Amino acid sequence: MPKQIHLNAFDMNCVGHIQQGLWTHPRDQSARYTDIHYWTDYARRLEAGLFDGIFLADVLGVYDVLGGSADAAVRGAVQVPVGDPMLLVPAMAAVTQHLGFGVTANLTYETPYQFARRMTTLDHLTQGRIGWNIVTGYLDSAARAVGLSGQTAHDDRYDLADEYMSLVYQLWEGSWADDAVRRDSASGVYADPARVRLVHHHGKQYQVNAMHLGEPSPQRTPVLYQAGSSARGSRFAATHAECVFLNGQSLPGVQKIVEGIRAQAVQHGRAGSDIKVFLGATVITGRTETEAKEKFADYQRYASSEAALVHAAASMGIDFARYDLDEPIVTDKSNAIVSNVEAMTRSAGPQWTRRKLLEQMVLGSRQTPWVGSAESIADTLIAWSEQADVDGFNLSRTVVPECFDDFIAMVVPILQDRGAFKTAYAPGTLRRKLFGQDRLPASHAVAAHRFAADQGSPR
After folding, report:
1. CA 159 distance to own-chain centroid
2. For the whole model, what pTM was predicted?
3. Is the pLDDT of residue 333 over 90?
């Protein structure tokens, strides 16, 4: 019996997300991103296709590394303009019952106390269908936007993140007891103050003395996503993440990373199965191989190499405009997404060049698309699931909404026939659907911060 595959649509509240330039395709509707009906229709489509969720990326700052200017990013709509992903969630939740929502929030620039309340609110409004993609940022332009001279070093950002997680865990899980809320209208007692306590946190980065403003939500802590596979990022994931998002590489390379993440989770007292790994993938499919290839060729005519270089330069922290086409790229000083640089080095060799990078950008990004009939795409997904031990896929949009309509109409039924994909949603919260329980297990780092059954209310 094949593993059950999980599926997220991977998108962003913007025009150009991963596959740069495809917003210019005549059938693409991503320029409607400011229309709330675009997003509610999107959510309905995904739920009809039994997708586990929609994973919403986000970025603060602009992509101004290539040539030292944001002009090309603005010109090509490379993740700018971009709206707040969290504001989409209540509208999409109102028209669905099961679809999950993974939202990206940069903890480097989010005040923990306010952020904790926002996520508790979303957990309530979605009836426990919210997840948080934990990111620490990688753009100097974002740091400058909030008044800093530049971003913190890569590994130092994760040190800050560990403290941040400790604080929000205390707010979500340690401020209100499970039985604090009584809703007793006869006595006029809504909540028992003896079962609500202040959080006293005095750390290197944050000082908080306050109670959490939100009453306990269905999941308490949102489902925790984390992207990145650098050495430091993997250690962070082993401690905190429930779902890890990896970018595509060779199957053996992904398998090795997955094994490492699960092994580190065990070293942290968790089970390897406590973490589900989602692989980023771009799928172009049709009823036949010929139809899929024709669609791919059509899409290629609209892909933008310039916009793809803008995105790659920012995510790797390398200004490719400084290099000739065949000049080896220096990669040892990047302070952006380290795992992206490592992935490129693995795929193109240590002396890779701008030409090699451009050769990989066949559809406006570094993510090589999987092109094939619905049968062959189903074969590919199952093979990666079984051989690389990934649990699911974050499917990047190409031309929307047809890319997801095609996948749902053609690939999903084949996966279902092969027993690799659900035929109905399980009830309950997003975490219950993914892991069989509403709250994080006692083996997770959050357990140390929970309101103990015999605790009172220290002030």
Report:
1. 20
2. 0.92
3. no
